[in-house]
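Lecture 7 notes: from sequence to structure.
We start with the chain below.
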Amino acid sequence: MRNTAIQPTAPATPRRREIDHVTLRQMFDLLVRAREGETIAQLLDDLYEALTIHFAGEESSGGFFDTLLARHAAQVAQLREEHRVFLEEIARLRGEVTPELEPVPSKIVRQLVDLVAALRDHEALEEHLLVDSIGSDFGGEN
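Predicted structure tokens for the same chain:
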């Protein structure tokens, strides 16, 4: 079987590398197309690790969420909570998907597709709020 998982690379410095939205979208695409237990299990492991890094960067001091807080405090609180929920859901699904699971039940495939749709919506909202915040900083209409 061909391993389609994105393999994280070791950082050159002790700081973990950032994971951007483009990389996350690629991972989402791989996950919704995967149908083999071994591949899904690896992709869920990779996605959990990538989102942990991505979310930590957004929530860190001086991170993405700090840019949004001035205008979008309520939405930032919602996004933070969604981060926790997403990681819990990935861990739950990973507990159900073992490498030996063949075929992967359609129920789990639907849950993966729903999870990816929710993650895409989440990332789109983050991008929208950032554009809105940046626009207001430069006198844009909002």
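Points to note: Residues 1-15, 137-142 have pLDDT under 50 and may be disordered. Helices lie at 21-33, 37-59, 64-96, 106-137.
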